[in-house]
């Protein structure tokens, strides 16, 4: 009863204010801007797909295909949170079963992320308001701790031995292992590397990684020499991809798949634990953190400096210098570096 009285009082107050302003409720309706008719998923998904980066398209494209397959003729504003949950159940039930799978949590997370990306664009284009976004009403699953961890030196030696003594291009595979093990770069950063990104005088490489981030990463003189030689021998143009096959074609992500499948065939523990290049990143960053501290490890990883959150506001003030990164590379590789505090 009290709530009804409050509502009625609010309505009366609104009417009184409109009367004083000389505005009628009909004027408000007539003056409201008409929202454009929402397109169907079949119409709108290609529009969004054409406007995002190649990396995002790789991540979301498969899920958008499923969306179009299921709701292609339906307008994008005619989907409820329950519809999205039903889609997730279907995708999880038909996912590719992997040895390191976690019950479809990744598929669920990526489905929601793909739909949120789509609906953010729909909101920006005026097809709906943010409060109407159904994907925001479906929570992402809580992430479980990663099973990846730092590998001991003996295991790293085994991996390097197989990579550099087997396969159809051991020189390429050995370079990949060294690049990831020394720089802790992501796979995308390695694939995006160009000859013009090499600063040979200062032994720095420019890494372009996820989220459009750019960073200069110190490398050892030995790695710099191998990168330059690889680019020259395989005809990499200055602004083209550096890492290439013997036939001078740029490598793709499939090279990593083949590499770890081959290593896993010779080292059963690699196959059993689903070891990949990202484990090398974990290994290197763990070593850097243990020996040079959190700030240097964070910069070495290329993580944002304003993460805050679980590490507190202090993290925004603690920045590692290029000299400190070069010191870490020098200690890791046992080679002098031109930017290190001690140059040997």
TrEMBL record:
Entry similarity comment: Belongs to the 'phage' integrase family.
Keywords assigned by UniProt, alphabetized: DNA recombination, DNA-binding
Signal peptide: none
InterPro entries named among the record's database cross-references: DNA_brk_join_enz, Integrase-like_cat_sf, Integrase_catalytic, Integrase_recombinase_N, Tyrosine_recombinase_XerCD
Domain Tyr recombinase, first and last residues per copy: 146-330
Entry annotated with the keyword DNA-binding: yes
Organism, as annotated: Paractinoplanes globisporus
Protein name as annotated: Tyrosine-type recombinase/integrase
UniProt cross-references to Pfam families, sorted A to Z: Phage_integrase
